[in-house]
Amino acid sequence: MEGEDEISNGLRLEDILLVAKVARDFGIRSVKLTGGEPTLRRDLIEIIKGLKELGYQDVSMTTNGFLLRDLAP
């Protein structure tokens, strides 16, 4: 949109969790977050929490690790 300074995250959080719910209903129990660099998403923690709340037993991520320190509490 005109005037936006933010980089698009692609799918919205709600859409990611909807796809994850459908996949879970088909028996999928693990998720690997990849992409360009997952840690660039401002909603990464919410995505991980949402996946765990949906019952995913294994949530992993491929990252270069550069921004992990910024995500630590």
Describe the protein.
The protein is built from three helices and two strands. The protein has 73 residues and is an alpha+beta fold. The protein has one domain (13-66): Response regulator (Rossmann fold, 3-Layer(aba) Sandwich). A two-stranded parallel sheet has the order 1-2. Helix 2 links the parallel strand 1 (30-33) and strand 2. The mean pLDDT is 89.
Describe the structure concisely.
The chain has helices at residues 13-25, 44-53, 68-71, and strands spanning 30-33, 58-61. With 73 residues, it is α+β, with helices and mostly antiparallel strands. Helix 1 runs parallel beside helix 2.
How would the blueprint of this fold be written?
Blueprint: H1 13-25, E1 30-33, H2 44-53, E2 58-61, H3 68-71
Parallel strand pairs: 1-2
